[in-house]
Design goal:
By secondary structure, the chain is α+β, with helices and mostly antiparallel strands. It has five helices and five strands, in the order E-E-H-E-E-E-H-H-H-H. Strand 3 and strand 4 form a beta hairpin.
Length: 152
Amino acid sequence: MAVSFTLNGKAISFDGDPETPILWVLRDHLDVTSPKYGCGAGLCGACTVHLDGAAIRSCSTPVSVAAGRTLTTLEGLAAKVGKALQDAWIEFDVPQCGYCQTGQMMSAADLLAKKKQPSSDDIKNAMSGNICRCGTYSRIEKAVKRAADKLA
């Protein structure tokens, strides 16, 4: 049974096991590699994508959940939000190894969609599900604040 959904504005039909995690459909079948495999249990945030605008962990969400809905990866973020985040990430030299950064940016985009001018506590809470092994948390917080300012 095929699962149909929209990915970054494009209609997609996945003809495979509907219990396949979204992460593997994206990476192995659709060649979308921005979401990363980290833990496989939805705990580290490296695989974060948006489902109907809300951040989810794609490694632990079956593709059947996306049926008839809209998935967005980093490549599909609205130009204004994506550019603001990218510019802020560069300005504060956020990535060290870079592995977790797409998940970090997707969580940040989700936060900024909900709260236009987040406080430090808002940012820390929203980003707490994303692990950065390099420990760039203070730079991530600064970048999220700068992106919010640019979007204001």
